[in-house]
Specification:
Elements lengths: L1 H22 L27 H24 L6 H4 L2 H17 L1 E5 L6 E5 L3 E9 L3 E5 L14 E11 L2 E10 L5
Antiparallel strand pairs: 1-4, 2-3, 3-5, 5-6
């Protein structure tokens, strides 16, 4: 009886082993590799809560520059300028425009810039920019000849402030830091 019990126990142990081997296709078939561990999840990028306001400030700033450049290219005040510029920013542009009218000059080309919004709240914003005037040339209207320029740097640090009024951003002040290059 002991021998029969031992055979029976051996048979009971062999059946699950045979079933397991059959599930994997037999001993001659390769065993499938274990499933790859899940990829580590990347951290969720933080969303700037001020992104929409910063975009709106930059849009006003770009609008001011576009209208400013059109004004200087024609020596006539662009009608859109006052949509984007007010206070000291507007008066600085008008003063420079008056200079071009008095000198009978216009600007050719465009400055390159790299503006960024440094801070913004509900009603105020601060911007910085690097303005490169290497491809921005003053010329005489009548002759088209270039007005001589000094030998100083053509890249300057530029700061601006903006205010939100009537639900829209307006560039309020601008300062060219001629003694500071970028």
């Amino acid at each position: 009886m002991t021998a029969r019990l031992t055979r029976w126990a051996g048979l009971c142990a062999a059946v699950p082993l045979a079933l397991a081997l059959a599930a994997f296709g037999g001993a001659d078939d390769p065993v499938p590799p274990p499933a790859a561990p899940p990829a580590p999840s990347s951290p969720t990028p933080s969303v700037d809560p001020d992104a929409a306001e910063k975009t709106a400030v930059l849009k006003a700033y770009e609008g001011m520059w576009a209208a400013r450049n059109r004004s200087y290219a024609t020596a006539k005040l662009d009608p859109e300028l006052e949509t984007y510029a007010g206070n000291k920013a507007l008066s600085n542009i008008k003063a420079t425009l008056f200079y071009h009218q008095q000198q009978s000059t216009v600007m050719k080309g465009e400055p390159t810039r790299a503006p960024q919004v440094d801070s913004v709240d509900e009603t105020r914003a601060a911007l910085t920019d690097c303005v490169d005037t290497s491809d921005y040339t003053e010329v005489y209207v009548k002759t088209g000849k270039t007005v001589p320029v000094g030998t100083g740097p053509r890249r300057h640090h530029y700061t601006a402030s903006a205010i939100k009024t009537g639900g829209k951003w307006v560039i309020w002040t601008t300062t060219i830091e001629r003694d500071r290059t970028c």
